[in-house]
Amino acid sequence: MISERMTRLASGGSAIRAMFEEGKRLAAQYGPENVYDFSIGNPYFAPPQAVSDAIVDIITNGDPMSVHGYPANAGFPSVRETVAQSLNRRFGTSYDSGNILMTVGAAGGLNVALCCLLNPGDEVICISPYFFEYNNYVANYGGRVVVVPASEAGGFVPDVDAIAAAVTPRTKAIILNNPNNPTGVVYPAGLLRRLSDALLAKGEEYGTVIYVISDEPYRELAYDGVEVPWMPGCMANCIVGYSWSKSLSLPGERIGYLVIPDDIAEGQLIYDAAVVANRMLGFVNAPSLMQLTVARCIDCYTDIALYDANRKLLYNGLHELGFECAYPAGAFYMWVKTPIDESEFVARAKSYNILLVPGSSFGTPGYVRLAYCVSGDMIKRSLGAFARLAADCGL
Amino acid sequence: MISERMTRLASGGSAIRAMFEEGKRLAAQYGPENVYDFSIGNPYFAPPQAVSDAIVDIITNGDPMSVHGYPANAGFPSVRETVAQSLNRRFGTSYDSGNILMTVGAAGGLNVALCCLLNPGDEVICISPYFFEYNNYVANYGGRVVVVPASEAGGFVPDVDAIAAAVTPRTKAIILNNPNNPTGVVYPAGLLRRLSDALLAKGEEYGTVIYVISDEPYRELAYDGVEVPWMPGCMANCIVGYSWSKSLSLPGERIGYLVIPDDIAEGQLIYDAAVVANRMLGFVNAPSLMQLTVARCIDCYTDIALYDANRKLLYNGLHELGFECAYPAGAFYMWVKTPIDESEFVARAKSYNILLVPGSSFGTPGYVRLAYCVSGDMIKRSLGAFARLAADCGL
Is the pTM of this model over 0.90? Predict the structure, then answer.
């Protein structure tokens, strides 16, 4: 009677969110100090002080009608210009406010981009393992996800040949997430250039354009000096979706942007369409106080050293126990091979009060994702439980 | 190549927004003091001081991780409970946090509600004149708007018989907007009860449920002690969408809620689906700082006396000049009959630097909408221009 799609989805729910709720239940039962919740990518460290300072200053000294009134649907022109100039300084680009659309987080931005690109029946390639919410975003506009597994042998980078083979005349876009959730891999520029060439060649073969949607909430989170390539610098027809959820620890505030470069196919039309889509999908505009706040904090980032310390602590701990996982170069996730059947492993982990997300929730069974955006203390306390889990699995 | 729907919409644009841009152009050309822009419903008066105080206090004394982290997709439980209790005090209801979903403004809330209700091909009744964005919202989920004109003779209230006659087996919902944009009419409780009975009877005839989606951003804006009925108290199967855009002058912040009462058909399923829809449409959650802020200001409202003074000033001025319009009881809009052809009237008004929105933008030609959420000074200054316009139209 009501929406059949939503009836189905409401009974399904999100595995990650369910785990999050389970974590709260276990914490109430065993005490929060005895539960090791690695399930959700909620930034653990507070926003930089500059964020609070900016908010208080804007509220105290700003004109409340400008601060809280309707900005343009695309966002405040001054904020968009600030974002553009920041990108230009960092990446040698030449964007201006007309290339930037302020969005309700990266999730809002991805929806706007897909709404602008897809006709019903169009295909969107996703590289597994991947954030499963992409399935819903693509379906929102009548599209269909085509899954291409990452190259496991290559360390979970995109498999250029497999992607090229998956392209059809209906392929409208590919979603890339770099640094990657859930693997923590950072895609290198050379690989991205090869992928771009392959997509251009396929597009030429079919007389189509294959857009790249680059989902980059983790752009500022790369370790050991690893450089995260500027995606439109490596890939043709690339639209970038960004969020300050992780880089400023503001996930609740829903603030991000799209970059729609001039030189992509139909760039101006896509930008104009994106402004309309932002309005008519019900976002209307990115929250206004937060637009002004992030513009003030354009050169601020959460201290990555804190996540880096967690990364080393958890990786070394798991590695010593015999777990098999790649050393992540970015984001705040670790992608661990399960030594036994995945669902059995997740269940046994839970019996030790360890919460993690099964790889099948990302389209790749046989692995689990650990989010290490948690306290270093919890990681330390968890290692005893992991040791028991390892023994239990015959490691 | 890109989305055909968005290509079409991007070239169309919003008449109201276009007028808004035209206003800025005229202001630059003739000086802002010589332009009379009645085109957009952007609150003119600042938020109550309590809003700024709450924000500064939350930022200064709150835990930044709770303030800016991910709340539940439905919103902070404490905020939802505060909203529920406030409604219970005012309307004698018995809601709790499980009936409230915090949304990205009313636009976000309406999209969530429609997403949960509609299957492709379903029909949604709108009463003209109406906010044309409803067309896009309904189309987002494959629905089709069926327009039923309001009773002009009855002062633009819903025409119960005409609505009943428009119901088909595919009718899934009716959107009501009370107090009304663009007419300023407040629907009386008795009429709403009769409409509810008619919808129930039609639903029984077809074996269907016809939901009422009540869009209420103007709920607190009613004058002369006119009571705005609590819609679920008058109408069966009613979901309420609210926004603080007008009542706290926060339109840029995108903060509102849905009320999904227990006693509507499939109430629990719709609530569960709405939580999922909030996530997967890309809203994820209502902006977190603003959730906490409105909860602190739950009993605060913009001073309606300021809008009331504008209402009297503009109504009396136009009435004396011979314009024909109903005295609005709510919202901050006046709905004026055009003494000559509508588009010619709008063009002549613009030649006197008066900007107003043609009634055809709301599906009802022969009228214009004036938004009087402007400075009283501007209204006073505009009356000379209106006098010349009246003379020009033979009044």
Answer: yes
